[in-house]
Amino acid sequence: MTIDDAFRARAARDPDRIAVRAADGDLTYRALDERSDRLAALLWERGVRPGAIVGLHLHRSAALVVALVAVIKTGATYLALDRRQPVELRRTILGAVGVEVLLTEPALAPESPDGCTPIVRTADGSWPEPARAAPPEVRTDPATVAYVAFTSGSTDRPKGVCIPHRAVVRLVIGSDFVTIRPDDVFAMLAPVAFDASTWEIWGPLLNGATLAVAPSGDLTPGDLSAFVRSHDVTMLWLTAGLFHQVVETGLADLRGLRYLLAGGDVLSPPHVARAVAALPRTVLVNGYGPTENTTFTCCHHVTSAPDHRNVPIGRPIRGTTAYVLGDRLQPVPQGEIGELYAGGEGVAHGYLDRPAFTAIRFVADPFAPGARMYATGDLVRQLPGGEIEFVGRRDGQVKIRGFRVELTEVESAVAAMPGVADAAAVAQRTPSGDSRLVAFVVARGNSPLSTLEIRAGLRQRLAEYAVPSLVIQVPVLPLTANGKVDRSALAAHAVQPRPDLNAVYRPPAGDLESTIVQLWADHLGIEGLGADDDFFELGGHSLVSVRIIADLLQRYGVEVSPLAFYIDPTPAGLAKALDQAAGPEVTG
Question: What is the pTM for the complete model shown?
Fold first, then answer.
């Protein structure tokens, strides 16, 4: 079965059921089928044929969902761009892949590279009309590539993973880790370039359920709770970082969920325990899986507070195998650490135009002749009950806000900055439990370095999430007994001194500024901050900002808009925003 076969069958069966709810309009299955037919016909008129790759550069909307279905109906492959990546990186990806047609919207159309024809949706959110109402009938094979997802590589050449139709169907039809019903409502929160969107979008659309499209941009925990409540969401996927924030700010509005899935990074056992206690009628699922095995490989139903150090990642889902193997691809005994290899119908074809990388990571499955499996690079062990527990990475990869980052690639980029003689990058846990990247640099001749200029230069070379939150100059990098950089010693420094900033230090004035400075210090793990220090120069990002907003809401009963961090990203600016939202009594 293919995605288009499954969707057409569902649209014929439930034509009047609501398929999509979004700010730019609700769509029944009939309307989604008809609109995607028309857009598919337009794509065909513009030369799109089976096997072509069509780019998508759109905000979350009903128009985006129409575009996804339309591309699939032509037999082509969709490639969704991540708006958080630098513009030049997006253009590089489009050029390298050979995208000739890009579905986009007016505000984003100017970013289209030369040689790429943009099809721009209209002001009312619809698409231009074609000469005919539907494209020619195309027979798609389950092995046809449905989409290309670029992994969260840290440098300017991330790898495009080619996911076939059968992998998506295996994920969402007949799932054994959840039971999907036609009356379910899925929340679409993930960027469409992130592979969690595969579950969020095709889960409902291939099962006759409803897809509720969240507004574009970052949502505060309060925004998220309100969205879940107002749309009667029953299926929700959260990254580990957002899950932890939601637990901290309150779970009352999530009590209508049937399933709460979380993952993308290690889940905190205390947060999991609180969620289990607060949501007795909700099934909490720890979902694990690399992009290369189509969103989920293993899932674990959490039925009680974790009684051990880590929350298990569970067992392989339907249509999937998970082997714990040693260096010679031999099974390791239960309880011993090995690398997790994922096999079955979810395995991708490989990396687009990267045969050498494909050969390294996609290898022959010794337990299924003719099949392949994916070497995840994750170290795991099998527990006595048969479930799998994540232990760590066997290479230099770390997870930062749900994205995979190669430390060696970050180190190479930092070391290439002017004036830098040596560099090391580590992932640190901040006092609030988040992961952040910190780079330690040694200057040539031990002369002073501008860490601000280093971070600015790195933004031109690295994806945003791969730019270190802090760059710290040290006289020398510590070494282990065998002469290697002692990253454990570097990572142990959880609280850092105030770094090089544009602002001259000014102590906080008044209780409110002092409170905000202390909150920033707690969440960023930096001491000695001033009232005029820039949040983003300090390595702050949206996940930290919404957590600070939640703390201020709990303390003062006033919710500040996330835009406050962009209007004036300083403690003084945030204090003004809080004053304006609540009146002068806040400072009194």
Answer: 0.76
